[in-house]
Design brief:
The complex is a heterodimer. Chain A is an alpha+beta fold. Helices cover 61% and strands 8% of the residues of chain A. The chains are: A alpha+beta, B alpha+beta.
Chain lengths: 707, 193
């Protein structure tokens, strides 16, 4: 009776904690963005948010046989999306943008000056500019922006030519961006999103998918972008959670029924799983700001682990204190291996640890409260098979050989590929997008300021010693324009007569009048299109975002350089070396814990787990698989989960642990093994690694046991 | 971009309406014999409102399906090379992707050599004439983007070589190139690092 009361109290308490957690944190924030998986240590968080906002764009590329066809299709798509309330589509651009740009140069001839020319004037190397001008005039291949009478030093022509390298492959035609590639014509449009809004991504994706059926499109349509990938990931993850949970649960139920042939017991075990899940969710909700959906994908493997306690507790008659002792040791050693993940810098791993600790704790407490119940299984008479000494020696030698050959050739590699892979249906779009925009963008330069003038001045300061194209290249700050006028005036003073003689001009050359280009005039010439490509507003500040092909030297606290791939790789490398230390600490801590329990036999209890880890790593090495941070993380779980097999096999004095341990292994191995088929490399890697580690540990512990 | 269009017209010797070029015409015979061209050039550049002519000299080499080599020796030295997929200036390789029309222009040069009038007729209006010694080809752009900066090209040659090319620009600039054959050849292989 007392036990029944305890069970009821436990259930009520669990429901209460779960209810409170959900009430406090409601509505739950479920993270779905890929960017949430990327560890953000070492980068400016605000700048990263701005970059996420900027890169949250769906890009649509329309392909056709010629420009007129593709323009007609694009117009239809634009009108259709606009009618369906998709806002802020970047499609039309100012006509004759290049001519308008040249026009601006000519209207403001003293506002633009190449850095090279500025430096030479400041260093009084006027003759260098003179020679540079002469070279430009006499070259066969040089275009001219302005007549030589008005631009004798070819300042404007050289300025315009210098930035022709930065021109994108897309060119303006009839007010849209177009390109010819491999005999096809393409038109380009962008739909900017607020970062990672899955619902909006879902709506736009459905609209895009329905284009062919609603419109008479003659060409092909491709779309890509972070929101599309996020939506695909979210959609796939939901399906995978459902699929893996169903498979795991069905297999567990089948195994359970095979063992007990009793619906009552099966129901008990299902209840146990529900308690495990509720405990995990309660803890996760309480201690996490935002739960990432990937946690639940991994959590579906929890089913296989939690069932272990049910099997061990429910099966066979044995001394209650001995049963409780084994379960307690098993619980403590498993928890011991999840605890280091709580200190990981990777948010999703902390969440996985919280979820697993919660689930294991809940199921352990429930199993202990259910300890009076025992059921006899028909498989009770099944004994552990005797393994001959020869087989034991062969297996041991094989294991040692695998380790000796594989371990020295271990390769480590951490990159975006270990975290995320493009789904097949988006690969073609991604590849086309990169081909059509083929610039090797490595970094994004983000500059923050209160006003546009301040922002332009910061950019210009950054250009000292660095050469890159940004908004300030076409809209210089007013301060810079005034400085340029003074410098050009000085150049005219020193070298105007020389260039006039060279050109054979009779009339004296006069310095053009100072004419400042303002933002209003710029906007009048180009509309919002150009500025919107570079400027974003966030938290009452103005940010400019400039894609760069190489690194630059930063010398301003309001400027940040972000290279997501390098940051991810560097962080994963750093975390991997942290994990190596954690692993050693865990094994050591586990050794200390076990030495209190098993005294001198502690080494024996550690051997299977230890060799399982080395064996798994060596097998990957033999199959030429590079080890990533996620392989190392999985080793914690291998140690924590597989120590149970050793404990129960080596403590199998009355030969009644074989079946429970076998079924425990089968359920865990199956639950993790199925994760190998997850579409995300991170989850797939962890599933496979744990499966291999558990399998090696199970068979090694079997070999080490008395039979 | 202007340079690339210039490339088209350097070897733009047989862009005429098919009915005007016969197998016996001098330009046809020239195109048949063409595999490789090596020449010295003298360039005269006239700018609007500037009386002075700007003279430069150098060498040019063209190999069918293999690319172009251009070397200016005076008044300043530089080299330009282009192949199907790359171009380089003073041996510094540039990405052809940075020139949106690069593939199209290179394709045009190849079309010229293969006498592929159908694609070239989309871009130019051509008139052709010849006398006993020389042939004369005049090319006028029909596409508005080219018409905006280029007035026309005039080519003069004979059965063996092109002797003169004149490019006239809307801005008033005129570039005249005169060629003399360089029998020794200039470089063995046109390639960028």
């Amino acid at each position: 009776m007392k036990l029944v009361v305890h069970r009821l109290w436990f259930l009520v308490s669990l429901l209460f904690i779960l209810g409170i957690s959900l009430w406090i944190k409601w509505p739950l924030s479920i993270g779905t963005s890929l960017n949430d998986l990327i560890p953000q240590q070492g980068i400016n968080e605000e700048a990263f948010k701005v970059l996420n906002k900027y890169t949250s764009i769906v890009s649509i590329i329309v392909e056709g046989d010629d420009f007129s066809q593709v323009k007609s299709d694009s117009d239809l798509i634009y009108e259709y999306l606009t009618r369906n309330n998709v806002k802020n589509i970047i499609y039309r651009i100012p006509q004759n943008a290049i001519e308008k740009g040249m026009d601006l140069l000519c209207k403001h001839p003293t506002s633009y000056l190449l850095e090279q020319d500025r430096d030479d004037i400041l260093n009084e190397k006027y003759s260098t500019i003179l020679n540079r001008s002469i070279n430009y005039i006499t070259s066969s291949f040089t275009p001219f922006v302005e007549d030589l009478e008005k631009d004798p030093f070819t300042i404007l022509s050289r300025y315009g030519t210098n930035f022709s390298e930065y021109s994108m492959k897309w060119i303006e035609k009839s007010g849209v961006l177009t390109q010819n590639y491999n005999g096809k014509a393409y038109v380009f449009m962008n739909i900017p999103f607020s970062s990672g809004n899955v619902q909006l991504g879902e709506k736009v994706l459905k609209l895009l998918q329905s284009l062919s059926s609603h419109l008479d499109i003659k060409g092909k349509i491709y779309f890509t972008g972070v929101p599309i990938h996020t939506y695909e990931m979210y959609h796939k993850t939901r399906l995978e959670i459902l699929f893996f949970t169903l498979i795991s649960a069905s297999t567990i139920l089948i195994l359970t029924f095979l063992l007990f042939k009793s619906f009552k017991v099966t129901t008990q075990i299902v209840l146990n799983l529900a308690i495990a899940f509720a405990s995990g969710v309660a803890l996760l909700v309480l201690f996490s700001q935002q739960i990432h959906i990937m946690t639940f994908v991994f959590g579906s493997a929890m089913i296989g682990i939690c069932i272990d306690y049910s099997f061990h507790s429910t099966l066979f008659r044995r001394e209650q204190s001995e049963k409780f002792k084994n379960l307690l040791y098993s619980y403590l050693t498993t928890i011991c291996c999840f605890i280091p993940l709580l200190f990981s810098s990777v948010d999703i791993l902390r969440q996985i640890a919280i979820f697993m600790i919660g689930s294991l704790s809940g199921t352990f407490v429930w199993v202990v409260l259910m300890r009076k119940r025992e059921y006899v299984s028909q498989l009770e008479s099944c004994q552990q098979p005797a393994i001959g000494k020869l087989i034991k020696y062969i297996c041991s030698i094989l294991m040692v050989l695998i380790i000796l050959i594989g371990l020295p050739n271990l390769k480590f590699q951490n990159d975006i590929g270990s975290l995320y892979k493009s789904p097949e249906n988006l690969k073609q779009s991604d590849e086309l997008f990169y081909k059509l925009n083929a610039r090797a963008i490595q970094n994004f330069l983000l500059v923050k300021a209160d006003t546009l003038e301040e922002l332009l001045q910061i950019e210009e300061k950054l250009k000292e010693g660095n050469n890159f194209f940004s908004l300030s290249s076409i809209l210089p700050s007013i301060k810079k324009q005034k400085e340029n006028y003074i410098l050009i005036k000085e150049l005219y003073k020193k070298e105007a007569n020389n260039i006039r003689r060279y050109l054979g001009l009779e009339k004296e050359l006069t310095l053009p009048k100072e004419s400042i280009l303002t933002k209003d005039e710029f906007m009048k010439q180009f509309g919002n299109e150009i500025i919107d490509r570079y400027i974003i507003e966030h938290n009452n500040k103005i940010w400019s975002i400039t894609p760069l092909e190489s690194d630059i030297t930063l010398n301003n606290k309001n400027a940040t350089l972000i290279n997501s791939k390098a940051i991810l790789r560097d962080n994963l490398d750093k975390f991997a070396s942290e994990m190596n230390k954690f692993l050693l600490i865990s094994v050591f801590a586990l050794g200390i814990l076990l030495s209190f329990i098993y005294k001198k036999k502690v080494i024996l209890y550690l051997i299977p787990s230890f060799f399982a880890v080395l064996g798994a790593l060596s097998l990957f090495s033999l199959f030429n698989v590079s080890i990533s941070f996620f392989h190392l993380i999985s080793m914690f779980l291998v140690i924590g989960l597989s120590i149970d097999y050793t404990i129960f096999h080596l403590n199998n004095t009355v030969n009644n642990n074989f079946i429970p341990v076998l079924f425990s292994y089968l359920s865990s191995a199956m639950s993790f093994g199925i994760l190998y088929f997850a579409s995300f490399p991170m989850i797939s890697t962890m599933g496979l690694t744990i499966f291999i580690g558990l399998s090696l540990s199970y068979f090694l512990s079997l070999i080490l046991s008395e039979k | 971009m202007k340079f690339l269009f210039f490339l088209v017209f350097v070897f733009f010797y047989n862009i005429v309406y098919a009915e005007e070029i016969s197998n016996t015409s001098q330009i046809y015979q020239f195109s048949q014999n063409l595999v490789e061209v090596s020449a010295d050039f003298v360039q005269s550049k006239k700018m609007p409102n500037i009386k002075k002519e700007f003279i430069s000299k150098g060498k040019v080499q063209f190999k069918k399906h293999n690319g172009l080599f251009w070397q200016q020796d005076t008044p300043t030295k530089y080299t330009f090379k282009s192949t199907q997929n790359k171009f380089c200036y003073n041996n510094e390789t540039k990405d052809t992707n940075s020139l949106p029309y690069f593939q199209e222009i290179f394709g045009i040069i190849e079309d010229v050599l293969a006498l592929n009038f159908s694609s070239l007729e989309k871009i130019f209006h051509v008139s052709y004439s010849e006398n006993k010694q020389k042939w004369f080809l005049t090319l006028t752009p029909t596409i508005d983007k080219i018409e905006k900066f280029l007035l026309g090209i005039e080519l003069i040659g004979d059965k063996k070589e092109i002797s003169k090319i004149t490019l006239k620009y809307v801005s008033g600039m005129v570039i005249i190139l005169e060629f003399t054959e360089n029998k020794e050849g200039i470089i063995n292989e046109i390639s960028c690092p």
